[in-house]
Amino acid sequence: MKSFKTITLAMLALLIVAMLPINLYAQAKEAPTRDQIEDKYKWNLADFYASDDAWETAFAALKGRIGEAAQYQGKLGKSSTMLAQCLMLNDTLGMIAHRLYVYASLSLDQDNRVSKYQELADRARMLYSDLGQATAFMEPEILTIPDEKLKSFLAQDKGLSVYTFYLNDILRRKAHIRSQEVEEVLALASPVTGAPSRIFTMIDDADVKFPNVKDADGNEIELTRGRYGQILESTNREARRAASEAYNETYMKYKNGLAATLASSVNADVFAAKVRGYDNCLQRGHERDSIPINVFHSLIKAASENLAPLHKYMALRKKVLGVDTLFGFDLSVPLAPDTKMEFTYEQAREYVMKGLQPLGKEYLANVQMALDSRWIDVYETQAKGSGAYCWGTYTVHPVMLLNFSGRLGDVFTLAHEMGHLMHGYYSNKNEPYIYAGHSLFTAEVASTCNEAIMIKYMLSQTKDKNEKLFLLNYYIDQIIGTFYTQIWFSEFELKIHEIVENGGALSADGLRKIYREVYQKYYGPDIFIPENRDLGGMRISHFYRQYYVYQYATSYAASQMLSRKILAGDKTAVAAYMDFIKTGASDYPVNILKKAGVDMTTTEPFAQTIKTFSELVDEYEKLLLSK
Predict the structure, then answer these.
(1) What is the pLDDT of residues 362-372, one digit of tens each?
(2) Mind spelling out the 3-state secondary structure of 40-72?
(3) Considering 139, 183, 417, 431, which one is annotated as catalytic?
């Protein structure tokens, strides 16, 4: 076969039939079981623990060590050595607890029906809570140490120097750290306040069962989330309509339970904000990472004042499709005529390796290692965790969950999650444990930067008009999905939190009404929302992490600026970007991004993204209507 570089997208389409052995699963009536998937397409959780028995041994050992923290209680201000030893013990126990929890959770996500792993995940979660309770004295006690004494401790003990940023941050958050007794209660309450998210996950991944439908070719198949996405991209409108009705009517059966879980989650957010002395949930969501609240409001304002390009695109979509009424199930079908792009997982791997070359040889070598070392769980199987994510621990490499089905979006999902994986891999290698994690505000930058680089690469590889239209269509939809949609999700989130903060209550009908209003505002007059298509607010897992979704939009805007500099061949930009992904949480996220070359306290990143979107819509319309 010719080298990959010489294979055009058109040629790839001709090769699909001979190169889709795994994607044939998508044509089976039922989703495959896990044992039907080859091991090379499954992650290897033995990298975390060799067996469940090994996990049990580690669990028992940690349970026996939690009491060690008590020896330092009441003594942190006595000497720098005592403080350093306590902080290091906390890190050590935290690393073990996290590894236990991640293994149990990943094992469960292989098949959410397996009660054994449901129990392991619950036990790991409770052990985390026990550890939190045992160490709850630390931050309140640190705050009793006089500032000058704490400074002298830092000067005396080199072992404490790594904790300088952490200790200064505690002082910054002093007003919101409660007494030891209250902190212990909050730690004890964490399994309860986190219950809505777990209940939603069990309903969504284990209980929700979609009916059989006919795919675009008339074959009867079991509807799954992955297959639903495939059908929505087909040109068969009746198949799209039927799949949409089946999908949404299934969720309608759970509407009251889903509304109750989301309402409970919002109430838990409000409870935590009040207990910690914040004015509201929005303040709490930003204060932890010292993000100016104005960033959130500026983002919503920028989008709300620039909806014309989005409305124009919806009108164009309606016109090109030739429909009297534009529905949600009409928004994913490509407008480019007679163009269909499908990929095997192997092809997706090659595209990622070629597309990410601007990030340098070292980065690519580590991507190759991740691809070849069973760090990725590739295909959709029965009761597997939905969507895609990357997760890992400080002592073990990150792993990636996919539900790959061969669509163009799956290629970009691989690139996106690889950005997360590399971010975690590099920060774990370069940061001490206490700073190895990422703020939500920076976490999505590395992932969406990969997508931005990939789309430019794929556009550069084709001269075919229809292929270019297909890719431009994807690029436009990517900005809608990652920027505009996340902003209107955030507006929805703000509204439902404000209702509870002002003494109101949330019901299924109330949530649907708010969701419908915001949906209509952003997508404009050309979209029609039927009665049972307004459940999105109740079936999106990210709403269980308060003020999380808007950070997709801010991250996307930041990544667009960074990727432009990288693709311009600016070597300093590549170096700055590599420094960025090596950084975890050793500084505040706004500062980290500023060092990388993007100032998120200004509106420039948002304005540039909106400008890019408007230009893409104009380019797309011109090319689409040209002869």
Answers:
(1) 999 999 999 99
(2) HHCCCHHHCCCCHHHHHHHHHHHHHHHHHHHHH
(3) 417
Q: Which residues pair with 407 in a beta bridge?
A: 342
Q: Is 422 a residue whose pLDDT tops 70?
A: yes
Q: Is the CB of residue 599 less than 8 Å from the CB of residue 451? A: no
DSSP-based three-state secondary structure for 398: strand
> In a 10 Å sphere around its CB, with 0-12 CB exposed, 13-18 middle and 19+ buried, how is residue 258 labelled?
buried
Beta bridge partners of 221: 213
**Residue-number span of the structural domain to which 122 is assigned:** 49-193
Q: 417 catalytic, yes or no?
A: yes
Average pLDDT, the chain: 92
pLDDT band at 210 (very low <50, low <70, confident <90, very high): very high
Per-residue pLDDT tens digits for 564-611: 999 998 889 999 999 999 999 999 999 999 999 999 999 999 999 999
113, part of any domain: yes
- For the chain, how are helix, strand and coil distributed in percent, rounded to 5? 70, 5, 25
DSSP 8-state symbol, 356: T
How far apart (Å, rounded) are the C-alpha atoms in residues 279 and 289?
16
Domain count, the chain: 1
Does the residue 80 lie in any domain? yes
Decide if 89 is inside a domain.
yes
**Each residue of 424-452: pLDDT tens digit?**
999 999 999 999 999 989 999 999 999 99
Residue 175: inside a domain, yes or no?
A: yes
pLDDT digits (tens, 9 = 90+) for 230-265: 899 899 999 999 999 999 999 999 999 999 999 999
CATH code of the domain in which 61 resides: 1.20.140.70
HEC secondary structure over 164-230: HHHHHHHHHCHHHCCCHHHHHHHHHHHHHHCHHHHHHHHHHHHHCCCCEEECCCCCEEECCHHHHHH
- Under DSSP, the state recorded for 389 is E
